[in-house]
Every structure is written in structure tokens, then in C-alpha cells.
Amino acid sequence: MVKQRILALDVFRGITIFAMILVNNPGSWSHVYAPMLHAKWHGCTPTDLIFPFFLFIVGVAIELSLGGQLRKGQAKRTLVKKSLIRSLKLIGLGLLLTAFPYFDFANLRFPGVLQRIGIVYFISTLMYLYWSPRTLVIASSAILVGYWLCMTLIPVPGIGPANLDPGTNLAAWIDQQILTGHMWSQTKTWDPEGLFSTLPAIVTCLLGVACGKVLTGYSNHQERLTKWGLSGVALLIAGVLWSLVFPMNKALWTSSFVLYTAGWAFLGLAACYWILDVQGWKKWSVPFVIYGMNAITVFFLSGVIAKLFGLIKVSWEGEAVSVMFFLQEALFNGWLAPKNASLAGAILMMVILFIPAYLMWKRNIVIKV
């Protein structure tokens, strides 16, 4: 039974949101170091780990929060209601962030990061509350195997044989039937947070629940670290082997991608736990705790500020340029190599976002979504 707050989880969440902001806000998309870019299609870069890590952390939090309330006798119906409200808030924030600042609802993109988090959180909560751990394992396995078979065996209507190519696979076809005109603007024919690929994303969250059960089920440090280490390695191996026939792909959230990224999540949390909660090396973690304390708020603000910096104009050398362009030109371009200048721009955004995060942390303000 967990009797105190696990610092490792707060820091792991903070590192994840820290990385998410870093890769989402380069000074120039034309000059970015390869590890800070998503894989072009098949494959998995360090950047591809970030979103599944966040869903995994949501799963850990489900076990720690809802599990604790269940053990205290809280009614499941009450927990479902609370979870539904939180899910709707996340979806609403995601749609608001997408709509800002033009609010063109006729062409509004429906899917998104926060929207997927909200949907996955609620479905995972229902499964967690009403199904046994054994049933969850069976259901998760069925989802991953079923998704693999559907994506690789079912012919795509109007296209031909099953395939995993951009825009012509089964997941893309489903999005086209339901979300036409409301998908990612860069593709318009498929969405990286589309409908069908949300199913395996639920398993990512449920693997986080399994990770959380190690925390609540074992009190010994060595037992926890051993369970997490063995689980992480097993998932990594399974993911790599499965990728031989069902390639890792974040946009499709393939089954091999689920296992592989969850493996790294287990090992990442274990590393944080060993450093912070076992060894007690905590001083370095404060900035990440600050980010992790209000992770959703910081992510939302990052989207708003980035859009505002791209819209607001200032005078620079006789021309009207965006604040983003001005800061990049005035502070970094010209004296830094292009990729270093771009990285410096991303770091600047992180510093800017650290200010409200720090003020909230200092005043112990936690905005719960």
C-alpha cells in the first residue's frame, strides 16, 4: 500500500512534459536535430516516446488515485461521474486549443493530444473499475492482436489490399468516413490521433495501470524495481519482435509500438524511482516537479503562447514580423549554427513557460482538470 507520495512519478511526468514542450517548439522546423523529430513513418525516435509516456503515466495515476478511493469505500458510480467530467474537460480544452485563435468551427480538427488523453482516460477508468485484472489482461491482448489483424488483413474499401501506408490504410479510411474536413491540416486524409488508432492507445494506459499496481501491491524497493525491470525488458523484446511483422508506428499506434514504448516507460519510471526514492538524490529534480505539478496547464499554455508568438507582430529592421521570428533573429540566429539556434529557441519557450509553472508551484496552486 502506498503511504506517501512517490516523487519518481511526479518527476517522470515533469520530464515528459518538459520533453513534449521542447520538441513541439523549435526555433525553426527546418533545422532540428534528428532525435527531436518524429519518425517519418515507421520507426520510433526518442520524440515518439513522449506521448505514450504521458498516457502510461495517466494509467499509473488511475491505480494510485481511483484505486485508493475504492479501497476507502468510494462508490464506483461516483468515480465514473468524476472521471467523465474530467474526460470532458480534457476534450474541451483540446478543442479550445485547436480552435484558438480563429475559432473556425466549420473546419475544426476534432482529434488531438488532449482529446485522445481524455478519451483514453475515461475508457481505461471504466475498464479498471468494472473488470478484474485478469480480464484487463485478456482485453488488452485482444485489442492489440485484433488491431494487428484488422490493419494487416482487412482490405481497404476503394483502395485495395490491406496496407500500412500513409492515407491509404484502414485507420485512415475510417477517419475519412467520419472526420472528413476535421482532420490534421498537414494531411487532411488521416490523423495521427485518429479514431481507430485510439484503441491500442488504451492499452498503453492500461499498462500504466499495471505499473501502478506494482506500487500499491509491493512496499519493498527491490521488489518494485525487479518487477518494473523485468516487465520493461520483456515488453521491449516483445515490441521489437512484433515489429518484424507489424512495424512500430506512432501515427498508427501499432501494437508493437504500444509494447516497445511501454517497455521504456517501465524502465524510465524505475530509473527515476531508484535515483529519487531509493538513493534520495532529489535536488536536481525540482524543475521537473514544478513542470509535472501542473502538466496539463503547462501544455495548454505552451500551445496558446506559441500561437500568440506567431500572430503578434513587432517591428524589426523596418518590417513587421512575428514575435517568434523577432526573438529567434534577435537572440540566436546569426551567431549560432542553425540547429543550435533552433534548439535555443525551444529552450527559450521552456524558460518562458517555467515562469507561470514556478509561480503556481511556489503558491502550491494545482489546477486540476
From TrEMBL:
<feature type="transmembrane region" description="Helical">
    <location>
        <begin position="136"/>
        <end position="156"/>
    </location>
</feature>
<keyword id="KW-0812">Transmembrane</keyword>
<feature type="transmembrane region" description="Helical">
    <location>
        <begin position="228"/>
        <end position="245"/>
    </location>
</feature>
<feature type="transmembrane region" description="Helical">
    <location>
        <begin position="7"/>
        <end position="29"/>
    </location>
</feature>
<feature type="transmembrane region" description="Helical">
    <location>
        <begin position="194"/>
        <end position="216"/>
    </location>
</feature>
<protein>
    <submittedName>
        <fullName>DUF5009 domain-containing protein</fullName>
    </submittedName>
</protein>
<dbReference type="InterPro" id="IPR012429">
    <property type="entry name" value="HGSNAT_cat"/>
</dbReference>
<keyword id="KW-1133">Transmembrane helix</keyword>
<feature type="domain" description="Heparan-alpha-glucosaminide N-acetyltransferase catalytic">
    <location>
        <begin position="5"/>
        <end position="230"/>
    </location>
</feature>
<dbReference type="Pfam" id="PF07786">
    <property type="entry name" value="HGSNAT_cat"/>
</dbReference>
<feature type="transmembrane region" description="Helical">
    <location>
        <begin position="49"/>
        <end position="67"/>
    </location>
</feature>
<keyword id="KW-0472">Membrane</keyword>
<feature type="transmembrane region" description="Helical">
    <location>
        <begin position="88"/>
        <end position="107"/>
    </location>
</feature>
<feature type="transmembrane region" description="Helical">
    <location>
        <begin position="341"/>
        <end position="361"/>
    </location>
</feature>
<feature type="transmembrane region" description="Helical">
    <location>
        <begin position="113"/>
        <end position="131"/>
    </location>
</feature>
<feature type="transmembrane region" description="Helical">
    <location>
        <begin position="288"/>
        <end position="312"/>
    </location>
</feature>
<feature type="transmembrane region" description="Helical">
    <location>
        <begin position="257"/>
        <end position="276"/>
    </location>
</feature>
